[in-house]
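**Protein of interest**
===
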Amino acid sequence: MTPTPEDLAGAVLTIDLVALKDNWRRLNTRAGKAECGAAVKGNAYGLGIEPVARALSEAGCRSFFVARPKEGEELRGLLPDATIYILDGLFAGQAEFYAKLNLCPALISIEEAREWAAFGRVYGRKLPCAIHVDTGINRLGFSMPEFDALLADQFIMDGLNVTLLMSHLACADDPPHPLNQRQREAFATVRTKLPGVAASLANSSGVFLGDGFTHDLVRPGIALYGGNPTQNVANPMLPVAILEGAVMQLRNVAADDTVGYGATWKADRQTRIAILGAGYKDGVPRALSSREPHGPAQVFINGRRCPVIGRVSMDMMGIDITDLPEGTVKRGTRAEILGRHIGIDEAASWAGTISYELLTRLGSRYARLYTGLESDSPA
């Protein structure tokens, strides 16, 4: 019998594209009259640009956001008719690359705007672009004085086809933070200076801040992939990534014996443990390692949460299965590390990080399974 990829992998990563599409539809509904786009940068947050982009397109998404022009090139090959914005702007000397692929740079400086307008004149038409104005996060984008200077330069503006005016929220995941309202008000001022152009401010969490933030186009990212866009509220999104590690070995550990490198975890009782075939090479954070007898990091196996024990190493990790009925866990049994019972935000908090980093660091050694893509269904 020919083995399947999951037979030969220590861990399996299942990407639920039905849940992904459902999440996009939920966000689309939440956005009201605004168009719902999708941020698919970073290889769709680590989950695979090709199946994710195709699934989102099937759901009805038409506007996509990536960070780098090479990501835009790959996406254009998948979705010939999509609108694709490059969030990192216009890379120096690469206007022709963008134009040939119909990629829209989110211009962040007068230098970029000048280069894009000049190339458009050579190319024979005004090329589409977004203008990104910084309203308080102080990363990319025109400052307010720079934006005013751009608008005053009629020669540059006459060479641009501005299809979107955008900014980026710094604290949308913290609704009471005063910077949210300051950015909303600053962006409202920006819009008055370039009327008639579609506007975009809301990211995942921004969609949940209300009508004053959604404008014409929202661009969720982490919420599409199952991350919680709300604070101190039950996650309104469905889990998309399900990571399971297979049990490689079972063993009994006596009280006071240690498990793993550095002997950092000591059994406080006679303990049954399972060793899973997933480690930090696969993107399981080493910070999930536990010194405590009962957590805090956990996995879900045979209907119950069990604590991670000892250090997560390159290829494996240990869990305490003492409280499961004996004989219910066997070699090859899978334990959920992330998914429907262990949310990505919860796991990230155990590791002292955020769901974005956890997803984007998922490795390539897993057997990856994609479910729910209509275009893969038999005719």
